[in-house]
Design goal:
With about 80 residues, the chain is an alpha+beta fold. The protein has two helices and two strands, in the order H-E-E-H. The chain has helices at about 5-20, 60-80; strands spanning about 35-40, 50-55. Strands 1-2 form a two-stranded antiparallel ribbon. The longest helix is centred in the last third of the chain and has 20 residues, at about 60-80.
Length: about 80
């Protein structure tokens, strides 16, 4: 999910997700950036059938996915 929020909101979200993680209710990964990139996929020009993809300009979803996998792996390692 890409959201536009203040630094205070980022801290609040991060702390809230961290509490949920510590309660073993969620896995999460956050990544923030100062800029985003939008890609438009056109099926056919003129038919109006297109999709927009929004991500951070510096690889947000990919980096967040790596952080999530590391978090899950560390949780599995600590429970063994």
């Amino acid at each position: 999910m890409v959201i536009d929020c203040s630094e205070e909101d980022v801290v609040s979200l991060s702390e809230g997700f961290q509490r949920l993680f510590e309660d073993e209710r969620v896995f999460f990964a956050l990544k923030w950036s100062q800029s985003v990139m939008m890609t438009c996929l056109l099926k056919e020009v003129g038919d109006g059938g297109h999709m927009h993809f929004v991500d951070e300009a510096d690889g947000g979803y990919a980096e967040a996915a790596l952080r999530l996998m590391e978090q899950k792996a560390s949780m599995s390692a600590s429970s063994n």
